[in-house]
Every structure is written in structure tokens, then in C-alpha cells.
Amino acid sequence: MELDERKCKILQAVIRNYLETGEPVGSRTISKYTDLNLSSATIRNEMSDLEEMGYIIQPHTSAGRIPSDKGYRFYVDTMLEEKEREVDELKGLLTQKDEKMDTLLKRVARVLAANTNYAAMITAPQYRGNKLKFIQLSRVDARQLLAVIVVEGNVIKNTILNVDEMLDDETLLKLNILLNTHLNGLSIEEINLAMISALKQQAGIHSSIVGEVIDAVAEAIKSDEDLKIYTSGANNILKYPELTDNREKASELINVFEEKQTLTELVSENLADENGTGIQVYIGNEMPVQSMKDCSVVTATYELGEGMRGTIGIIGPKRMDYDKVVGTLKTLMNQLDTLYHKEE
Amino acid sequence: MELDERKCKILQAVIRNYLETGEPVGSRTISKYTDLNLSSATIRNEMSDLEEMGYIIQPHTSAGRIPSDKGYRFYVDTMLEEKEREVDELKGLLTQKDEKMDTLLKRVARVLAANTNYAAMITAPQYRGNKLKFIQLSRVDARQLLAVIVVEGNVIKNTILNVDEMLDDETLLKLNILLNTHLNGLSIEEINLAMISALKQQAGIHSSIVGEVIDAVAEAIKSDEDLKIYTSGANNILKYPELTDNREKASELINVFEEKQTLTELVSENLADENGTGIQVYIGNEMPVQSMKDCSVVTATYELGEGMRGTIGIIGPKRMDYDKVVGTLKTLMNQLDTLYHKEE
DNA sequence: TGTTAGCACTCGAATGAAACGAGTGCTAAT
DNA sequence: ATTAGCACTCGTTTCATTCGAGTGCTAACA
């Protein structure tokens, strides 16, 4: 069977209406809602076809229709008409750049959640492929060294190293120079085994320390920051009955937002395969996570230059207002972009 | 009217029973439940008295009684019989100390939540009154200085300072020495204006930098860490119907756990006035926060020596198992204490 | 041949009456 | 002082009924 224009229009009408009301929508509603001037009977026939083709579903015999995952998918892929959205709050929000990244991200999430009435998440930008800018060892205590590592983009990491041997000031200075001259400007991927052993050799009796420092560098850069996800508006989820019609489901969802592990997986999967616009939509069972099978997630990748890249996501029910969400995210992307290039 | 022993026993029985079932408890239940050997009729009379005295409440005419806030309060103050509790998981949990504080706290919260079936929160220890151990300025960029500040207890803070003037290596070294010799071993409170201006004077033309560093020190130490609260098990809240019988309430509560602001206030209030054991119980309307008026919170103060002190809290419905919670918290306190002193 | 009016049918939701039962308060007997 | 007994209350459960939104099908129509 063919998906002709009329069927499209009807499908669209069904979805639009369902997005608004959350109730199954019947033929009579459509017949008035659209400008097709068709009677409810005709619509019924068409809807029957659409159901057969798998775009819509009848929850029970005498109810209207609701979109299936396939229907949503079709809608998202072909029928979105993006209204230009203004996210007023965001403008002011992003102009004070000197804030802590922490606070900023948290606030972006909050504004997104408040604006959309869905839940929002945002990851801290990752610095993959970024280069070391500065390393320094300092003695803090008799047996403790402080290693400070600065990565491009002014991300600072530090670790305390416990050492067995005493180091005098001079040795420390030498070590610092050694580390800096050899490692600065390199990305993590570029620090390989050969290089490490060369360094160790040069360090002579202090080779064990060099090893520890390098471990610390690797550890510091990969851990921590990259799984940091900020969320906001988890409570919005409770607003949608279809997501919380039993305690079990609600509890699982809330848990997803508290233990951010699941979200992390979602995001990293998203970062892997990327399409043109950087905006991606997961609908229901397309989600890799079982507990979110009644949700949809719209994710977008933002970029702050220097390869600093993070992900923003909106999580809501399948009947979320895709138009609005995609629009909002695009606006936000633009503003982040503008912001970055202005400050450059 | 007098609260004689029999009334006490009955009140206790009512509360115990209600804690278990969550249902209003009737006179017949009590008459069997207790070892008083009284008929339901007698119990009824006594319960009628207890109601008049404000310890229990009848939700509607033909229902059993449930404890009032006053009843709970009486129970908590006088009737808790603490069973010694073993929190097995915690033992192993705390033995790997070299973990990141972050992870540790998060995990403690998680174990607490899982153990109690309520929600748990824990604040990072605060370092009030702690002393500076180490300060270092390093040049990262032509116009950027990295200030690293280590505080007793090996808490590390860092900030990037943007500077206008170029500094050569020698000046930097001098500044470092200056800062360290003057500031090390001082607590924030001890760094006063007189000292700052003295420092500035010695720094000569670089006085503005000294000012900035001191600001950064102050800023770094007070901000951030002290409002960090880790929570776990917010979804447990959803298990208790009385907390989530309407969407509004549920949403507000979940929000409390996501925007941790409210919890912060609760905790700081708790830190202010402290009683003997360090354990404190808030019941229902005793809570300073309206949105938690159907909850109870049990908080405990933990100490890691060196004046590092934080708060742990369990949040649940008013009918939470106070015995168990208080016991669990005490055990945990002990273990934290032992842990610290062993490692000392 | 595509569209539509009409109609019987389905089934969840809303309504309401009745029965149930857990619990109370009161009174009178022990 | 305690208790058995009983009438009464009131939320909950159950069941039947009605209601109505919506469907599918058929026959008539343009």
C-alpha cells in the first residue's frame, strides 16, 4: 500500500493531536481538525489503512488511535516543521562566561527543563584528543607529592602521590623539567609505552615516580570529568501519566536520573555515531535501555571549540513535542556557538 | 490527664504497628498485639484518651488511629530501643580509603539507601577552621597563572588567574616563597586585612597579584565543596503511598532530591545546633521545609578528625523505622570513626 | 469508483446502589 | 475498673447499569 499525501496528512493530524492531548484520537476529531473536508467515515477507512501499515495503533477495540513507534519515527524524520524558538532565558544565561563550568551546566539543564517541561541532561564537555599544557610536581609533605596537570582548555586535574623515597628540591625541579619538556603538547593517545620507558630511563633512580605520574595523568584525564552528567527536571517525568502509571516504572525512571550511569551509556553511544545536524532522536524501543522504553530522548552535540564537545539531551514521553524540543535545542546550540566564537 | 504506663504501652503498640503496616490500627489489633490482656473495649477507652491528649489521630470516624507528630516525637524521644545493627556492606566499603572522596561518599549514600529502603544523603566533610598547607603559583600561559592551594586533609583547590603583567620565572619564585612563608599553617579566619596589606607591600609592584591570589584562596576554600550533597535512593520515596498520593507531592519531593538546595539548608541548620549524640530527628512539620512535611529526617554528624565534619541523613515517611535507622547510622558513625583512627 | 450517511456493535469509563467490614462510642452487666 | 454487646459510622469493594466515543460494515450516492 502507498503512503499518499492524504494519508500523510491524516497521520500527521493524528500525531499532532495526540501530542497535545495524550488521548487516543478518533476519526471525527480528525475530520474537523484538518482542512481536508472529509467525513469521519472516510477518515476511518484511511486510519484503518494506516493501522494496517503499522503507523498507528488502537489501544482497544473501541478507542481512537495513537501513534506507534514507527509513526513517531516517520513524523520526526519527515514532518517536523521547526518553528523558530526563542529561549530568552538562555541569552542572559550564557553571557557571564567566567562562571564555573559546573554551575553553568547545571543552570543550562535547569533552564532547558523549565522551558520544555521535560527532563534535561547535559554532559560536561569532553576533551578528547586534547593536549597536555602543563605538568607540575610539588612536594606537599614528607611523603606526598602533588601532581597538577593542566590540559588544553584550562581543565585542571590533580592527584596526590604517595612516594617512598625522599626527593630534594633539586631533583624535583629536574623531574618537572623532564616531564614538561617531553610531555607538553602531547595528547594522551600520543603517550605510548616507548615514550614512557625513555622517560623512565632519563629519570634514573626516580623512574618509579615517573611511572606513577604518567599513570596519574592518564587516570586524571580519562576519569571523572567525562562521566559527569548534570540533570534537571526529573520530576517533570511524573507529570506524564503514561510514564508513571505504576510505581515500578516511575521508580525505575527516577532511578535513571539519580544513578546517572544509564544516561552516560546513552550519551556515549550517541557520541559514537553522529549524523549531520548533531541532533538525534531515540523513540521508545529504539532506546538501548529497557527502563526507558516508554520515553523518547532528543540529544544534541554541542561544541565549544578546541575539540571540547558535550551532549545535551531532553528526556520525555514518546508524545513529546518534538518540534519544540528540536527547536529549543537548535537555538541553544547556536547560542553556545556564537558565545564561543565571540569570546575567542 | 496522666500518661501512665499502660497508656505508654498502648501508644507504643499503636506506633509500632503503624510503622509496620502503614494502616490505621484499631483497638482489637492492639488487644491481641500486646501482652496486657485487655479487651478491645478497654483499649478503646484508652485510645480515646490518647487521642484527646493529642498523641494519636483518627483519620475518619470509623477508622483506627495513626500517630500524630506529637506521638512520633514521644516515641522517638523515649521509646526507641536500639537494636544493635550490623551493616555488613559498610565494613568492606570503608576499608579502601585511597578512593576519591567523591566515589566514597556516593557509595556510602547508596549503601545506606539500599539498606534502609529510604532515601539517603551525605555531605562532603567541611574543613572549617582548617589550615593552609601549601600554595603554588605556576605560569601556564603568557597571561595565565595557575594557583594551586592545598588545605590540611589534602583537599586541593585550583583556579586560573588572568594577569595583565608578564612575570618572569624569578619573580614567580619569589612570589611563591612569599606566599608560602606567610600563609602556610594559617586558617582562613586568620588571614585578615592587616596581613594582606603587609603582603602586598612586600610584593611591591606585583601587589595586585597577591590580592588576587588571596581572593582565590578565600573563594576556593569556602565555595563549592561545602554545598556538595550526594544523595541516593530518591526513588525509594515513591514506595510510600502516603508521600506520593498525588502527583504534586511526589514531584515536589523528587525535586528536593534533584535540586539539593533544600537539603543543604536542612543540613546547615542541623550543623548549627547540636545535641549530645550527634543524631537528630525531624518529624513532619518540625521540618523547616514545607514540601517535606509528610516526611521524617534522621541526621547524624560524622567526623573524620582534623575538624573534618559532615552530615549524613536518612529521609523517609513519618512512619519510618526509627529504630533501624538510628541503629544503622550509629553503626556507620562508629565505623567511620574506627576507620579514621586506624589510618591515623 | 471514491465518498458518505446510517446503524449495529464494542468496550472502557462513569455512575450509583448495595453489601461489607473494620472500627468506634456508649451502655449495662460483671 | 473491666468487659460484653450492640447500634452506628463510613470508607471500600462489588456489581450492574448506563453512557458515549469510537469502530467497521453496508448500502446509497455523486
Describe this structure in words.
The structure is a homodimer of 344-residue chains. With 344 residues, the first copy, chain A, is an alpha+beta fold. Chain A has 3 domains: 5-76, Orthogonal Bundle (Arc Repressor Mutant, subunit A), CATH 1.10.10; 97-126 and 226-339, Beta-Lactamase; 132-221, Enolase-like, domain 1 (2-Layer Sandwich). In chain A, 47% of the residues lie in helices and 17% in strands. Chain A is built from 12 helices and 10 strands. The longest helix of chain A is centred in the C-terminal third of the chain and has 22 residues, at 322-343. Chain A is elongated and about 90 Å long. The model of chain A has no long low-confidence stretch (mean pLDDT 83). Chain A binds chain B through residues 100, 102, 110, 133-134, 136, 138, 140-141, 144, 146, 148, 150, 154, 156, 158, 160, 224, 231-236, 238-239, 244, 247, 250-252, 254-255, 257-259, and chain B through 100, 102, 110, 133-134, 136, 138, 140-141, 144, 146, 148, 150, 154, 156, 158, 160, 224, 231-236, 238-239, 247, 250-252, 254-255, 257-259. Chain A binds a DNA duplex (30 and 30 nucleotides) through helix 3.
